[in-house]
Specification:
- The protein has 228 residues and is an alpha/beta fold.
- The protein has a single domain, classed as Rossmann fold, CATH 3.40.50.150.
- Helices cover 34% and strands 25% of the residues.
- The chain has eight helices and nine strands.
- The chain has a seven-stranded mixed β-sheet with strand order 3-2-1-4-5-9-8. A two-stranded antiparallel ribbon has the order 6-7.
- α5 crosses α7.
- The longest helix is centred in the first third of the chain and has 19 residues.
- The N and C termini lie far apart (36 Å).
Amino acid sequence: MTAEPIASDFVARTLRAYERWAPAYPPTAHNPLMRAEQEAMLRLQPAVAGRRVLDLACGSGRYSRLLIEAQASEVIAVDFCLPMLGQVSGAQRVCASMMGLPFVAAAFDVVISGLALGHATDLAPWADEIARVLRDRGTLLYSDFHPEAARAGLPRTFKDANNQVFAVPHHCFEIDAQFSALKTAGFDIEAVETVRVGYELQESFTNSDVFYDRWHGLPLVLVVRARR
């Protein structure tokens, strides 16, 4: 089987998962990990007031809401899942793949992407496409699940509206490979943060004492800021 059918199957399975998840997916950081990830993202977020920002793979629009509150001049929210995109409010909504963005070159000052890199089919075209739509000295800020968490066997799952558990297809891109793709696309990496069990993630939840004892110190989320 060639790479293209494999990529198409990955995209189709990912889309089906998010279509199922959408009715139960609020436009907020709705669990302890997402809240810890969001805190790390906001620590590294560049000034967005008066700037044009792309919320890439926006889901239900939690970062769009925060960008609007931070007085971005314009927020464009892009996602490939219409049921997710339908929950976004306040931003201009565009249904599209992050692997092929329907925007002219140098359209944005900032690109924000939360927990979505693992849904890319390939690193190089993902980084190239973001670089294309960013203006000179524009900033990319993204987060994704840390490859160490994947190697430890922690799955990426969700519960749908019927409380059934489903897995979300997710590529595990090594950090070195991410940084190499960014540098090849013309980015300079400015800052990196990690969300670790028992450190940046400390919020209590059901059976959290067992979770924290077992996984103490494990990196769960990687956050990267890079400038074009």
